[in-house]
Design brief:
By secondary structure, the protein is α+β, with helices and mostly antiparallel strands. 24% of the residues lie in helices and 24% in strands. The protein has helices at residues 2-6, 58-65, 82-89, 147-155, 175-179, 189-193, 200-207, 211-227, 239-244, and strands spanning 17-23, 26-34, 37-42, 71-73, 94-96, 104-113, 119-123, 131-134, 157-158, 163-164, 170-174, 195-197, 266-270, 272-275, 281-283. The strands form 5 sheets. The protein has a 4-stranded mixed β-sheet. The chain is elongated, with a radius of gyration of 23 Å. The protein starts with a helix and ends in a 10-residue tail after the last strand. The structure holds flavin-adenine dinucleotide.
């Protein structure tokens, strides 16, 4: 921005591009909606579309990411896939990565809205400290500390039900999670979203999770925590987690590893899938970034 401003580039705020102007097979400009009405801007060399993802376009999210409930985004308003709409309107092709290779985080709705009325959410990366993420069968399904593993597992299709086995998902935690000093930073929305019970079975019933499955999972997790290693999903062992996460912000080398879920009351909070402005599809282009029809 600074370099462009220094070079004399003029920025138009609140002036969305609403169409591409073409001559033959060339894009020669854009139509822009401004407070002075619609204006055409001619481009001598070409038009670069840098409009981000499509997070706030529900139809695109369903079409490209799957029919998931509990979906929201951390990106600013206006990230709604205009490049896909306006590009395809002039015949550009759309190409996609498998949805499970997109970037998707987990988190919670805050209950607050931003200045244009969009719901805001809080991203949450679990550390396995008295907490796990489970599906409705009460099973863990990924290394909770590594979001790409979680994302891939959530998209896995269950042939039996033709649905997603690992969605919806719940964060399960205990009283130690809430009181531990390391957890002083736990996300505030959990306060409003959680249900609690004195037993794991009771908690599962309340949340709508299979009680036998959840009990088995928590017992297994506690055994692994006592032994000091998550044998099932290797929580905290990926290089990215080791490089970027620490249980204690004052000690960067404090590694992420499992800690048991055993002190009642127990809690469950249903999670939301969160996009971050970079989805799986885009306009198909060649090396010079020219779009293909
Ligand atoms: C909370 C958060 C954390 C993130 N953390 C990371 C991270 O740690 N590492 C990482 O690699 N990535 C991260 N990302 C993702 C990263 O920010 C995005 O992938 C990146 O910003 C996308 O860049 P972009 O230039 O394609 O689009 P954007 O930065 O989304 O910019 C698109 C711009 O186009 C404008 N626009 C949209 N439609 C129109 C229109 N019709 N006319 C005119 N303008 C329009 C929008 O207003 C916006 O300003 C994070 C994202 C979020 C939200």
């Amino acid at each position: 921005m600074r370099a462009a401003a220094a070079a004399g580039v003029e920025f138009w705020l609140e002036s969305p591009m609403v169409g591409l102007i073409t001559e033959g097979d060339k894009v020669t400009g854009v139509r822009v909606s401004t407070d002075k009405g619609e204006q055409s801007v001619r481009a001598k060399l070409g038009v670069v579309l840098g409009t981000g993802g499509y997070d706030w376009n529900k139809d695109f999210v369903h079409r490209f990411e799957g029919e998931f409930d509990d979906h929201s985004s951390l990106s600013p308003p206006g990230i709604d896939g205009d490049h896909l709409v306006l590009g395809s309107a002039i015949g550009a092709a759309i190409t996609t990565l498998p949805a499970q290779r997109g970037v998707m985080m987990l988190g919670f709705p805050t209950g607050y809205f931003d200045e244009v009325g969009q719901p805001t959410s809080l991203m949450y990366l679990p550390t396995g400290q008295h907490e796990i993420v489970v599906n409705r069968f009460g099973e863990r399904f990924a290394d909770e500390s590594f979001y790409p593993s979680v994302q891939t597992a959530i998209h896995a299709l269950d042939g039996k039900t033709h649905g997603h086995r690992n969605w919806p998902a719940w964060l399960i935690f205990d009283e130690d999670y809430l009181t531990s000093t390391l957890r002083a930073f736990h996300p505030a929305p959990i306060e409003q979203l959680r249900v609690s019970a004195d037993t794991i079975d009771g908690l599962a019933e309340l949340a709508g999770i299979d009680p036998t499955g959840l009990k088995k999972t928590v017992e297994r997790y506690n055994e692994m925590a006592a032994a000091g290693r998550d044998e099932d999903f290797e929580l905290g062992e990926k290089m990215w987690v080791q490089a970027t996460r620490s249980l204690d912000p004052t000690t960067p080398s404090s590694p992420v590893k499992p800690a048991p879920i055993k002190r009642a009351p127990f809690y469950a909070a249903r999670m939301t899938r969160l996009q971050v402005g970079s989805g799986s599809p885009g306009l198909k282009s060649i090396r010079t970034a020219r779009s293909l029809g």
